[in-house]
Amino acid sequence: MSVLKGEGKVPILFGSTSIAAGNPTLGGYLARPDLQGEWPTIIVVSSAFGLTSNVKDLVRKLAREGFAVVAPDLYRGQKPPRFPDAGAAEAAFSRLDQRPVRDLLAIASFIRNPAGFFSNAERGAGMFVIGTGAEAGITAAAQIGPAAMAVAYPVGIAGENMLQRLGAVGTTPLLGLVGRDDDRVTLDDVAAARRVAPQSEWVVYDATGHDFLDDGQPDYERGTAMDAISRIADFFEKHLPPMA
Does residue 7 come out as left (phi exceeding 0), alpha (psi in the -120 to 50 range) or beta? Predict the structure, then answer.
């Protein structure tokens, strides 16, 4: 497999995977460089829409920049509603209760196993959370202690419990990306997050709404999405342990 101009740095392997992280075995999507070595590793926590084709595309894009990337299926095969709006999907996600957090903790333990052959996560892994997945991701991150963390339009981030959990992440490098026209993640929310995580860096995109990374949603912005993925890749390249 060759790498075409604009498609990243390395050829990749990708596809659905089983994650031996408890009982039952979890499903998910994995992409990693098709080269020898153990790679800096990122866990992607999808939004309430679940493990969509868009999330899989994001996973592949990051992998082409030289990362091993795994996105767990937190719904465990039960696809959530996707249309006509996010309300039904978020209701379905909320019914999962604390199971997504437990699954993320199990996945972190799995990839940190030094017996793995593609991941150097025992030296520190990253986490990338999207939308409604921010609550489960940040809750798990407070216990996992990721080497670095990126968040895109994190729904509910200014809630009291979320801010406490974000503060518990400590000095972990944090990159946040939001749209200025997002009525669900406001600039006041960003200011609140900055206060509890002063080490964080936030990018605010003008004339951009919610779900700007999701090409299946009305707010999708191709140029913004491309810039965001580039920034996320650069951020993790800077803060994650290099290839082993």
Answer: alpha
